[in-house]
């Protein structure tokens, strides 16, 4: 069974639909929000198939010496795809902000397309 790790703010209806489809969900955090396991500490034993998050959850504030690369290091290490929720008209700007990170198993999608995108990626991963 696939398990989706999700950051705080992810639409509960998406998570409910995933559960009804037999896909597990588990809360993850960015180390500052106190929501679930810190995403940077994921291991293979966590058996996370995909992470879903809003862009702001992986962007540091301007005075922080870390960035999205740091937050997503475990996803990169364990080859876990990440779905980043961004308004449709801001995807190009989000890719620009993330720079090289935007090319690392990140799929940027509008919140309205999140469920279908997650199902599509999981289908590719588990087929």
Task: Provide a quick synopsis of the model.
By secondary structure, this protein is of the alpha/beta class. The chain is built from five helices and six strands, in the order βαβββααβαβα.
Notable characteristics:
alpha/beta; six-stranded parallel sheet; 127 residues; 30% helix
Helix percentage range: 25-40%
Structural class: alpha/beta
Number of strands: 6
Gyration radius, rounded: 14 Å
Categorize the overall geometry.
globular
Mean pLDDT: 88
**Given the structure, what is the number of helices?**
5
> What is the strand content?
15-25%
Distance between the termini: 12 Å
Q: Which spans have pLDDT < 50 for at least 5 consecutive residues?
A: none
The neighbouring-strand order within the major sheet is 3-2-1-4-5-6
Largest sheet: 6 strands, parallel
Secondary-structure element order, as H and E? EHEEEHHEHEH
What does this structure look like?
- The model has no long low-confidence stretch (mean pLDDT 88).
- This protein is 30% helix and 20% strand.
- The protein is built from 5 helices and 6 strands, in the order E-H-E-E-E-H-H-E-H-E-H.
- The protein has a 6-stranded parallel beta sheet, with helices on both faces.
Topology:
Elements: E1 3-7, H1 12-20, E2 24-29, E3 37-38, E4 50-54, H2 68-71, H3 73-77, E5 82-85, H4 91-98, E6 106-109, H5 114-125
Parallel strand pairs: 1-2, 1-4, 2-3, 4-5, 5-6
């Amino acid at each position: 069974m696939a398990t989706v790790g999700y950051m705080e703010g992810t639409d509960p209806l998406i998570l409910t639909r995933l559960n009804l489809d037999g896909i597990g969900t588990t809360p993850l955090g960015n180390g500052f929000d106190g929501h679930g396991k810190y995403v940077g500490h994921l291991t293979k034993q966590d058996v996370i198939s995909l992470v879903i998050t809003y862009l702001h959850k992986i962007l540091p504030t301007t005075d922080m010496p870390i960035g999205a690369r740091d937050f997503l290091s475990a996803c990169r290490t364990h080859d876990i795809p990440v779905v980043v929720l961004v308004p449709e008209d801001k995807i190009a700007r989000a890719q620009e902000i993330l720079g090289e990170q935007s090319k690392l198993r990140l799929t940027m999608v509008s919140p309205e397309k999140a469920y279908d995108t997650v199902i599509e990626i999981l289908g590719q991963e588990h087929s």
